[in-house]
Amino acid sequence: MKISTKAAIGAFALTMTGLPALAQDAENGATVFQRQCQNCHNVVDDSGEVLAGRPNMRTGPNLYGVIGRQAGVVEGFRYGADLVAAGAEAGLVWSEEAITTYVQDPRSYLQEVTGNNRARSQMAFQVRSESDAADVAAYLATFGAQEEPAG
Ligand code: HEC
Fold first, then answer.
1. Which among 123, 125, 129 is the best mutation to test ligand 1's pocket, defined by most ligand atoms within 8 Å of the CB?
2. Which pLDDT tens digit goes with each residue over 76-118?
């Protein structure tokens, strides 16, 4: 029963967004966000309205409009140097795919993107399930997303 409901939501999302094959489930992504992300992150739009998570959450950067945004550029947030380098030097722009990989192992991801095998991440958290990672990325894409970057 659970599987068929999820498949139905996936098919619906597919119709709505025209996303290719792998049907991410933004609805499950909302649950993943509540359970795994909002201890550190929120989603606050430009007018200051809190769209997900709690107000005044500053452990991690605001994830509003993160898709299509260069890594490490939320004003006033004190990022680690390696995430800033991933954006400013290696040109990392967040896509759903990039977030899916990053949240499963932020440190390895930064090492790969920067080519620096001593790169460190300040995000001390890993999503254990790849499908949860993809779903939460799809959920984040529903908030103020800019053009999905190619690749
Ligand atoms: C324990 C706290 C914590 C949790 C839990 C956490 N994060 Fe993070 N996250 C951070 C911190 C801190 C950073 C900044 C990392 C750095 O500077 O290296 C970050 C950075 C990020 C970034 C990069 C944003 C940017 O502006 O470049 C994304 C995307 C992200 N997190 C997504 C998630 C998602 C999705 C979840 C839930 C599955 C999650 N995080 C859970 C603390 C957390």
1. 123
2. 999 999 999 999 999 999 999 999 999 999 999 999 999 999 9
Q: Which residues contact 16 (CB under 8 A, 6 or more apart)?
A: none
Helices (H), 39-105: 81-88, 96-102
Q: How far is the CA of 1 from the centre of ligand 1 (A)?
A: 33
The per-type count for the chain, helices as H runs and strands as E runs, is 6, 2
Predicted model pTM = 0.85
Q: In angstroms, what is the span from residue 19 Cα to ligand 1's centroid?
A: 25
Query: Whose CA is closest to atom 34 on ligand 1?
Result: 37
3-state secondary structure of 79: coil
Q: Is the CB of 123 under 6 A from ligand 1?
A: yes
Per-residue pLDDT tens for 17-71?
A: 554 445 689 999 999 999 999 999 999 999 999 999 999 999 999 999 999 999 9
Tell me the domains of the chain and their CATH numbers: 25-140 (1.10.760.10)
